Amino acid sequence: MNRITIATLASILLLFILGCNDTSTSTKEIFNGFALQPVNFLNKKVYIPSNYTKTNLDELGEMLTQNPDLNKLDKMNYKFATSSYDQSGNVPVLYQDSIVNTNSIWFLPGAYTPINKGLVNEFVNATERQFLKPAEQQGVSFDRLEAKFITQHSLKAIKVKYQLKTENSTRYFTQFIITKNLETYSMVVLHDYNEDFQKILKSL
């Protein structure tokens, strides 16, 4: 994987996806306790919690700037979301939690990129060098919680998960780079609690 590809993937902020056939029964079992809604991404049906509503970067930016509780983590997330769009040219598909509006799920298609276990450390290093280390200068500290390679039938994924902290707030950032059926997606979950929705992968 070349540096340009790594840089693009590492800066992408988006969220929650994956292609599947009609797996609503197994998906609902896996998401026990959540009311679900089907959404479409790249002509695939994906199930996400029903309290998430579709939005876009402009609406998200307006919400953040008008929010009196706007903090450094929200500013950072929005900055890198717009940056990833500018760099890749791909329009992210965004879903925002209608109950806790700082929680969000992002989807972004990417160019097909074969991935393997050997790329995990390279991806982690790129993510921390380009995204998290600069954030420390803005008063954001981070702890890496997970960095692993996932395989499931024809699906391969790299998962990185971090706890982000400022003096007054804590957020969780999880990113999946997923390759399946000669397609590559980025999937990001931003959440106030330690929830990354990885369980959806089990239904694919």
TrEMBL record:
<feature type="signal peptide">
    <location>
        <begin position="1"/>
        <end position="22"/>
    </location>
</feature>
<keyword id="KW-0732">Signal</keyword>
<protein>
    <submittedName>
        <fullName>Uncharacterized protein</fullName>
    </submittedName>
</protein>
